[in-house]
Amino acid sequence: MAERRWIKDPIAALAVGAERGVVVEDGRIVELVPSGAEPAHPVHAVFDASRHVVTPGLVNTHHHFFQTMTRAHPKAINKSLWPWITSIYPVWTRHVNAENFRLAARLSMTELLMSGCTCASDHHYLFPSGLENAMDIEAEEAEALGLRMTLTRGALDLSGGEDSQAVAPGGAIQDDDVILADCEQVIARYHDRADGAMTRVALAPNAPFDVTKHLMRETAALAEKHDCRLHTHLVETAQEAAFARSTHGMTAADYLEDCGWLTNRTWLAHGIYFDDDEVAKLGRHGVGVCHCPTSNMVLASGLCRTKELEAAGVPVGLGVDGSASNDNSNLMEAVRHALMLGRLKYNAETVTHLDALRWATEGSARCLGRDDIGTIAVGKQADLAFWSLDDLRFSGAGDPIAALVLCGAHAADRVMVKGEWRVENGQPVGVDLAKLRHEHGEAAKAFLEAI
C-alpha cells in the first residue's frame, strides 16, 4: 500500500480549501485539507509544513542549458539580441561538446530545482559534431535529479551568409533528413503521453529566420503523427516581425498557419511583437506563449503583451531563457520580473502577484500541454515547492503568498516532484554542489580562451 503523507498546516498554500495542507499518495495529491478539518482517511506520515508557504512546483517553458558555459561572456555583454547572438554563436559552435554539455545541463537543472522548478523544457538546437546525443544526455541528467522534463529537440538547417538572414555558423546546422530521423528516434525513446509522465518530447526548429519552411512543415506533420508539442522562437524583436512581412509577405502568425503550426500543439518563445490581429488569431487556435521577462530586459527586446494574449485565450507561461541572456536559471526570479515588467506595461492594479505565479505554474503547464501539473488540486501530480519566510527580506510581510513575489523569494527550502523530495533544506538531493561548481567552472574556461 502506498504511503499517505499529510503536508500539514503550511503558513499558506496557493490553493483554495487547503488551509491545513494536502495529502499525498503514490505521487499524487489525493486530498486538500480545509481550515478546521483533519484528513478524511488515516495517514501514515506527517510532514510539518508550519515553516513553509506551499505553491505548485514552477514550470519552466523555455531555456538553453548549454549557454551556462558563457554567462556574462566578454564577447556578448551589453548588446541587444542580434549583436549578441552573432558575437556568441561562433564560440558555442567551436566549444560545446558532449562533456561540457552534460555539465551545463546538470548545472541548469540543479539551479532550476533550487528555485522551486519541478518541470522544465530546454530548447536545444545546437548539434555540432560529437553532440548528436544531446537529448539522451538531458534525459539521463533529468532522471538522475528527479526533474520532470520536456525534451525539446531543436534544429537549424540554414546558415548565415551574405544572402541569408540566418545567423548560425555552418558548423551548427544539420540536414533535414538527419534532423527528422533524430526527431523520430527521440520521440520513440522518450515521449511518454501518460498522465504523470516524467519525460515528454517536443519538436522545435529554432526560429523562422534560420530554418526552412520545409522543416517547419515536416516537424508539424511529425508532431501530429506522434501527438507531441511544437516550439519555436517568434517575434522576440521588431526586426523579426518585419522579417516575416518582407521575406514571406505575411505576418508571423500567418506564417505559422502556412506552415501548419497554428494549433494548440504549439507554444512560442517570447512573442513580443504580435499585432492585435495576430493576438486574436493565436488565441482562437490556442497557441501558447512563453514570456521570458529577464532575458527580454537583459537584451532590451521589448515587453510581452501578456494581458492581451491571455484575454484572447492564449496560454501564457514563463521561461528563464538562455543562461547567456539571463544570465541565470532561477525561475522564481523570473516570476518577480514578470510582475514588475507587467506593471510597467499596464499598471499596479492590472498585473498582480497571482498573475505572475499563475504564469509560472498553470500557464506554463498549459503551454507544455499538461493538465496533470501546475495547480494544487486533487488528482494532480504532487509537484510542490516549499518556501520558508525566515530571511530578513520577509520580516514584516503580511500576505505570505504576495511576499514570495514582492519580497523576492529566490530559493526554495524544499521541492517535491511526484511525491519525492528532490530538494531538502535548500540542497538538491544527491548533488555535490561544490564539485559541480568546480567542474562546470573549469569546463567554462575553454569558452573564454576563445576570445
From TrEMBL:
Parts of the chain that traverse the membrane: none
EC number: 3.5.4.32
Lineage: Bacteria, Pseudomonadati, Pseudomonadota, Alphaproteobacteria, Hyphomicrobiales
InterPro entries assigned to the protein according to its UniProt record, in alphabetical order: Amidohydro-rel, Metal-dep_hydrolase_composite, Metal_Hydrolase, MTA/SAH_deaminase
UniProt xrefs under CDD domains: ATZ_TRZ_like
Protein's name according to its UniProt entry: 8-oxoguanine deaminase
Keyword entries, A-Z: Hydrolase, Metal-binding, Zinc
UniProt-listed PANTHER family: AMIDOHYDROLASE-RELATED DOMAIN-CONTAINING PROTEIN, AMINOHYDROLASE SSNA-RELATED
Organism of provenance: Kaistia hirudinis
Family annotation (Pfam families): Amidohydro_1 (PF01979)
Family: Belongs to the metallo-dependent hydrolases superfamily. ATZ/TRZ family.
Gene3D superfamilies: Metal-dependent hydrolases (3.20.20.140), Urease, subunit C, domain 1 (2.30.40.10)
Molecular functions per Gene Ontology: 8-oxoguanine deaminase activity; deaminase activity; metal ion binding
Amidohydrolase-related domain: residues covered: 53-421
